[in-house]
Amino acid sequence: MCGVVGILGPTPVNQSIYDALTVVQHRGQDAAGIMTCDGNRVYLRKDNGLVRNVFRTRHMHHLVGHMGIGHCRYPTAGTGSAAEAQPLYVNSPFGIALGHNGNLTNTAQLRESLFAQDLRHLNTNSDSEIILNVLAHELRAVMGRKRELTHEHVFHAMNKVYERCHGAYAVVSMVVDGGILAFRDRYGIRPLVYGVRDTPAGREHMFASESVALDVLGFDLVSDVQPGEAMYVSKSGRLYRQLCAEKPCHCPCIFEHVYLARPDSIIDGVAVHKARMRMGEKLADRILEHWPDHDIDVIIPVPDTSRTSALQMSYEMGVKYREGFIKNRYIGRTFIMPGQAERKRSVRQKLNAIELEFRGKNVLLVDDSIVRGNTSRQIIQMAREAGANRAYFASAAPPVRYPNVYGIDMPDAGELVGHGRSEEEIRIEIGADRLFFQNLEDLLDAAREGNVDIEDFEASCFHGRYITGDVSGEYLDRLQQARHDSQKMEASTVVDLNEVNSYGAS
User: Fold this and answer.
1) In this predicted model, what pLDDT tens digit does every residue of 466-485 receive, in sequence order?
2) Partner of 382 at 20 to 30 A CA spacing, among 69, 135, 366, 416?
């Protein structure tokens, strides 16, 4: 899970990209970067840390140009170095930069073919660098000795990119002195939207992971980048779009609606806020069906993602809603912390219980999901310490039982509290007096109701069926080794390009 942004317009874009990255900061707190283009020269600033810490005034002054892309990253295996922060860059052909959200499923094969056949060197462990080099190679192949890039060249190259790159990817890239190129995998697993803003100086074009970034900057949402579609905005401001992948299937990731996306975003035509309200309605109906004579005194959400569902549950069940936890806004999202010890420490630092809302009451705690179970266990313990008589727990999503391979760094199966356990065993593990999970079909219906044209949802973390059809047991074993927390905490040894400020482009 990462955040990507790309903007092209008639005026400098550095401040707009920075502002957009702060809006999608929830998608990645580990590193951030911006690259801009001014004529035939690009300017880069990237480093580990939050957006507000990576960019200072001196950096912003240096990021000149009317075209640029930005990226915020969250920690996965092999991303310890600032050199793996994005955007990434290659200088031929033209000079191409790229920011990527997602994960390839044929990384090993592509890495081998890029070296052995395309004669391209990879300097990091990032599959984003693989996509960048595949794109660069295919553009070079279709261009030959031509010097002027056209949209036909771009789309011919993209046909090959889709043939070679499998898995999940939402990409914004920049061709020096050419334009902005955005594309999305054939299943549309990771989100990507397009919008415009008309100014006295002319029209600006913007791509972003979520529509909220467009809203905050005053852009109008035009459309999602469709599954298997490439969109190219030339430096003159002309938009071209074409379906470049064969047999696309609209199957976005359901976990975007459960947890990842901001509630004020619209993804694939579905308002995230409304989807979460429907999740609350359906979960309330499920609880009332199985426990009509419940003794719940109060419903309390686990901030922040579950608030919408919890509030709707309160309305449907006729039970009081109360805010029982105060959140420290300066602690990051524990789901995307790099290590288990860090996550455990952060839960107590992030949340503090309001004792008077718990004392002597039977409390239903509502969270968006249960992944490792550590957060849930600690929150239930906090409720008891605050005086709760009984601590019930409800998850707006089904049990997470399988790793995600499409860009969400869910741990290996052994670290998932739901893997190999029944719902009763999960209840005992987290220490709840009662535990309720959302039904999977109800979850999918809650999102699909917003857009009936969605063919299916990528929901492998709940049922273990991987939508791309190329995820083998051997692949999952390799992923498990790479994703184990001990591996994540080891920094990669790579050449650090962080302090490189500009590149001349051929």
Assistant:
1) 999 999 888 888 777 776 65
2) 416
> Based on the domain organization, do 136 and 223 belong to the same domain?
yes
Alpha helices in 63-210 (DSSP H): 107-116, 127-143, 151-164
Considering the domain boundaries, does residue 500 fall inside one?
no
Q: Which two tokens stand for residue 107?
A: 């990384």
Per-residue confidence at 410, pLDDT binned at 50, 70, 90?
A: confident
Are residues 265 and 272 in contact, defined by beta-carbon separation less than 8 angstroms? yes
Distance CA 149, CA 152 (A): 8
| Contacts of the segment 292-296: beta carbons below 8 A, 24+ positions apart | 295/362, 295/390, 296/362, 296/363, 296/364, 296/392
Residue 396 within a domain: yes
Q: What's the rounded Cα separation, in Å, for the pair 169 and 369?
A: 24
Residue 141 has a pLDDT of 94
Euclidean distance between CA atoms 33 and 23, whole angstroms: 14
Q: Are 350 and 327 in contact (CB under 8 A)?
A: yes
Measure the CA–CA gap between 85 and 70, rounded to whole angstroms.
Answer: 10
Q: Cβ(253)–Cβ(277) under 8 Å?
A: no
Cα–Cα separations (whole angstroms), residue 498 to 84, 338, 344, 495, 501: 9, 21, 31, 9, 8
* Residue in the structure block whose two tokens are 């990576």: 54
The partner residues of 239 in beta bridges, in order of sequence, read 233
| CATH code, domain carrying 367 | 3.40.50.2020
Nearest to 77 by CA among 45, 30, 35: 30
Q: Which of 2, 37, 72, 251 is catalytic?
A: 2
- Bond before 191 cis per omega within 30 degrees: no
Kindly give the interhelix angle for 151-164 and 127-143, rounded to the nearest 10 degrees: 130
CB proximity list for 198: less than 8 A, separation 6 or greater: 204
Token representation of residue 391: 């601590």
Dig out the tokens for 369 from the structure: 């999901």
Q: Can 244 be counted among the known catalytic residues?
A: no
Q: How many domains does the chain have?
A: 2
State the Cα–Cα distance between residues 32 and 5, nearest whole angstrom. Answer: 11
Q: pTM of the prediction? A: 0.91
